[in-house]
């Protein structure tokens, strides 16, 4: 069993609201619509509500199985599966978080390359980003948590939705409720990826002060994300026709493009640049989780693993040449993320109930 | 037999201003050893010798001598090292001519010798409020503080720092208010120091700072008495150093550098408004020119059509890329500022006119820069002067340049990268072990009543949560009873 994290490295329990929220706001917000409407059409917003509410159960499971006596998922693995198998499974999660970071990072770079700087060299920008990541992560978890807090200042940006709503067509949402339950659930499954990021809670759980007392904030984070995406999908459905939407690459950006002020045209530039405030903490959280697991499972210090991880991230981000490769990665991420959150965590929860009972009776 | 103390003293004090004289009082001979540069002639006669001249029963021992001198700082000593040290600090060594190897150390040095007595806070001027500033002499500074906060709760803790200078450094704090953690941190860092001569608190600040590789000042330094008093009553630790007219306080936050004491002397609406103006000035000063570079290099399509015309028109004759144009003007402004601060006041006024107006106009006429850029650069220079503390305005001056270069490399993306790096840096910074950007992170919403805006005094009765004071409440709010309710009393 690990030592409890020292008081001055922990953060208040309510910070899960920001950390979960920022991960779920990351790169997906620009292009999640096209994937979802395929199954549930104009009722996709119901799909998102279903999965958003369902996720609260997952959060409840995480808070239930962590805490006493297991502090994080690495401990849990060791308790359930024994030291060696448990550690092996924990190491697999390193790969999972790394792919998450890679996707987040590369998807954002792709937006910049397509939308802002078509001629820019990927590696120069990536190198500078890697420096930022290194600087932030080496500040420790508190700094990363502080970073995630600042995404809240982007919330006023949601007011831009006023412009597409003004031009939108409410009839696009009608007829409501004409999809079968199976179709809605299919849509829910497709939209699972917009909620990725909450699984990092399994790793940073011991860094929260009085986590059980503040568990409501994790639920609020999920509800806030659900609300945000439901609003966004409704506005998108009003603004686009469904045929057009399926062929739009970044519907969110296409909608921001129409905004114009007397001092500012091309509002989406501002939107893309400010979104870095979300991407940087998200990638940092994932990479931090990688180094944290490696530190706990192996003897490797974060001083070594962090530069190594970032170097691999840098190389991996540069190997992508075409958009189709990123789409492949995205499909892969969506699959493993879905299985991790919706299959693996419940299974782990059920096993842990018996395992903990066994340990306590001994 | 040891050599005579007097001769030993003579042998070790080689400086020409070291004096040894003999004074005959009644029938006794008296040896005096002192530095004439430290003890003024007038003091020697007025404070010491005049008392010895009074007729008395005769001086046989040093104790008789001691009884005659009405000063409290008198010690009997025969230790050569101690005598040497105190004579070097301005004491007089008195010896009777009876061959004995001890004497009296009398401290009559004049602390005000060569010091100015008042300071009009010209560097941190405010229209309202007291214009009392600290001076180079630590005793005057301490007495100013003591008179300002007339309470036994105000504690001065004196240390001698500097292996050569043995400078008096005082840690001041309010008992029962200041968190002992801050006091211990400050004391520990000061005592762990090994440095030869401490000239200034600004120098001390760099030695005891949490992160010396940062452009941001991690201690608030001020020459204003009211500002330091305000920091003290809010539970901060003040460090006062002999020979320095500025006092540093910590733990501080980045927001306190934007606060001016005048905010509290104006009604809260005015105070908040001016404070917001200052925040805007800081943001404008850091970002304006880098936005110009980013927009004109990459994102000319984000300028609306009606605005594009004037910009193109004013830039049409400029042969340089925006980066060079901006750097040329920014460096000119920095040169003006640097020259202005090194010159006597009268000359620098003339220089401002010549440099600012004539040079700017000529640069536009010669086609070196555009009119619009001239406006932006001079506005951002003006905006950087709105900060009440000199140190943060230096930081703002400096931060502009990396942002301009980043804007040239990657446009708006580069600016955002720079800002994120600054934000990451701010999140990592600590002042005396406390986070630097509270109340923003860790988020303390009840401290926002006095950070971005200055609320009414009916809401400021609590101390800043950010310094974790032992006593939370500063005062109780009482409603003035004679203010009637005009609406309900008909």
TrEMBL record, chain A:
Keywords: Germination, Membrane, Transmembrane, Transmembrane helix, Transport
Transmembrane segments: 12-32, 44-63, 84-109, 115-136, 143-163, 190-208, 220-240, 269-288, 300-317, 337-356
Subcellular location: Membrane
One family name in Pfam for this protein: Spore_permease
InterPro entries registered for this protein in UniProt: Spore_GerAB (IPR004761)
Protein's name in the database: Spore germination protein (Amino acid permease)
Protein family per UniProt: Belongs to the amino acid-polyamine-organocation (APC) superfamily. Spore germination protein (SGP) (TC 2.A.3.9) family.
Keyword Membrane annotated: yes
NCBIfam families per the UniProt record, alphabetical: 2A0309
GO cellular component, one term: membrane
PANTHER family recorded: SPORE GERMINATION PROTEIN A2 (PTHR34975)
Tagged with keyword Transport: yes
Membrane protein topology class: Multi-pass membrane protein
Organism: Paenibacillus taihuensis
One of the protein's GO biological processes: spore germination
Major site of localization recorded for this protein: membrane
Automatic annotation (TrEMBL), chain B:
PANTHER family (UniProt xref): LEUCINE ZIPPER PROTEIN 4, SPORE GERMINATION PROTEIN
Gene source species: Paenibacillus taihuensis
GO biological process: spore germination
Family label: Belongs to the GerABKA family.
Domain of life: Bacteria
Transmembrane region(s): 276-298, 348-366, 372-390, 402-427
Protein name per the record: GerA spore germination protein
Keyword field: Membrane, Transmembrane, Transmembrane helix
GO CC field: membrane
InterPro entries in the cross-refs: Spore_Ger, UPF0353/GerABKA_families
Database matches in Pfam families: GerA
């Amino acid at each position: 069993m690990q030592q409890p994290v020292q008081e001055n490295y922990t953060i208040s329990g309510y910070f899960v609201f920001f950390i979960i929220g920022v991960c779920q706001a990351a790169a997906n917000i620009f292009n999640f619509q096209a994937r979802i409407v395929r199954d549930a059409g104009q009722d996709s917003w119901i799909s998102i509500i279903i999965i958003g509410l369902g996720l609260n159960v997952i959060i409840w499971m995480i808070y239930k199985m962590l805490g006493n006596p297991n502090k994080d998922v690495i401990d849990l693995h060791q308790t359930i599966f024994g030291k060696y198998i448990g550690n092996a499974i924990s190491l697999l999660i390193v790969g999972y978080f790394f792919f998450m970071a890679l996707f987040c990072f590369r998807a954002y770079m792709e937006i910049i390359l397509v939308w802002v700087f078509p001629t820019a060299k990927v590696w120069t920008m990536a190198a500078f980003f890697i420096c930022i990541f290194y600087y932030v992560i080496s500040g420790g978890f508190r700094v990363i948590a502080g970073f995630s807090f600042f995404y809240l200042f982007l919330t006023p940006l949601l007011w831009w939705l006023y412009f597409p709503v003004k031009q939108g067509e409410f009839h696009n949402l009608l007829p409501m409720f004409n999809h079968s339950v199976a179709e809605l659930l299919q849509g829910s499954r497709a939209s699972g990826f917009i909620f990725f990021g909450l699984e990092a809670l399994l790793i940073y759980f011991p860094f929260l002060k009085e986590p059980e007392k503040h568990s409501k904030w994790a639920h609020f984070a999920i509800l806030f994300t659900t609300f945000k995406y439901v609003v966004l999908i409704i506005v998108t459905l009003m603004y686009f026709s469904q045929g057009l939407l399926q062929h739009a690459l970044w519907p969110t950006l296409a909608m921001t493009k129409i905004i114009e002020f007397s001092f500012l045209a091309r509002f989406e530039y501002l939107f893309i640049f400010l979104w870095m405030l979300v991407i940087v903490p998200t990638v940092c959280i994932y990479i931090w989780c990688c180094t944290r697991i490696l530190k706990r499972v192996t003897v490797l210090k974060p001083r070594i693993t962090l530069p190594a991880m970032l170097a691999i991230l840098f190389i991996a981000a540069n190997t992508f040449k075409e958009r189709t490769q990123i789409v492949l990665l995205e499909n892969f991420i969506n699959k493993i993320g879905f299985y991790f959150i919706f299959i693996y965590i419940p299974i782990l929860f059920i096993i842990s109930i018996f395992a903990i009972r066994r340990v306590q009776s001994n | 037999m040891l050599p005579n103390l007097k001769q030993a003293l003579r042998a070790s004090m080689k400086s020409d201003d070291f004096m040894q004289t003999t004074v005959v009082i009644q029938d006794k001979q008296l040896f005096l050893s002192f530095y004439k540069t430290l003890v003024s002639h007038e003091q020697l006669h007025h404070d010491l010798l005049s008392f010895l001249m009074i007729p008395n029963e005769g001086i046989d021992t040093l104790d008789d001598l001691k009884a005659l001198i009405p000063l409290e700082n008198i010690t009997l000593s025969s230790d050569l090292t101690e005598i040497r040290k105190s004579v070097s600090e301005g004491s007089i060594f008195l010896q009777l001519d009876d061959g004995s190897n001890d004497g009296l150390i009398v401290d009559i040095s004049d602390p005000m010798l060569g010091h100015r007595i008042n300071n009009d806070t010209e560097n941190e001027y405010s229209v309202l409020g007291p214009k009392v500033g600290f001076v180079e002499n630590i005793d005057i500074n301490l007495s100013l503080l003591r008179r300002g906060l007339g309470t036994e709760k105000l504690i001065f803790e004196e240390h001698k720092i500097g292996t050569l200078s043995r400078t008096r450094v005082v840690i001041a704090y309010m008992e029962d208010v200041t968190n002992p953690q801050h006091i211990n941190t400050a004391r520990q860092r000061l005592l762990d120091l090994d440095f030869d001569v401490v000239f200034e608190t600004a120098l001390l600040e760099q030695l005891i700072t949490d992160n010396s590789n940062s452009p941001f000042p991690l201690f608030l330094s001020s020459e204003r008495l009211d500002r330091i008093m305000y920091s003290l009553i809010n539970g901060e630790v003040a460090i006062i150093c002999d020979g320095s007219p500025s006092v540093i306080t910590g733990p501080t936050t980045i927001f306190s550098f934007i606060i001016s004491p005048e905010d509290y002397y104006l009604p809260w609406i005015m105070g908040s408004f001016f404070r917001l103006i200052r925040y805007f000035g800081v943001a404008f000063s850091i970002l304006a020119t880098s936005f110009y570079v980013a927009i004109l290099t990459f994102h000319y399509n984000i300028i609306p059509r009606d605005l594009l015309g004037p910009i193109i028109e004013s830039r049409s004759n400029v042969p340089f890329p925006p980066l060079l144009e901006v750097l040329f003007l920014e460096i000119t402004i920095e040169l003006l500022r640097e020259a202005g601060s090194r010159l006597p006041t009268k000359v620098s006024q003339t220089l401002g006119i010549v440099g600012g107006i004539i040079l700017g106009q000529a640069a536009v006429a010669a086609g070196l820069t555009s009119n619009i850029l001239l406006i932006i650069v001079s506005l951002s220079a003006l905006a950087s002067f709105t900060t009440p503390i000199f140190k943060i305005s230096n930081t703002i001056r400096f931060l502009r340049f990396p942002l301009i270069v980043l804007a040239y490399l990657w446009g708006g993306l580069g600016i955002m990268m720079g800002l994120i790096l600054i934000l990451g840096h701010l999140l990592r910074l600590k002042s005396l072990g406390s986070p630097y950007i509270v109340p923003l992170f860790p988020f303390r919403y009840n401290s926002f009543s006095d950070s971005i805006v200055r609320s009414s005094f009916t809401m400021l009765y609590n101390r800043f949560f950010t310094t974790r004071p032992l006593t939370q409440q500063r005062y109780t709010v009482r409603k003035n009873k004679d203010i009637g309710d005009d609406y309900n009393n008909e």
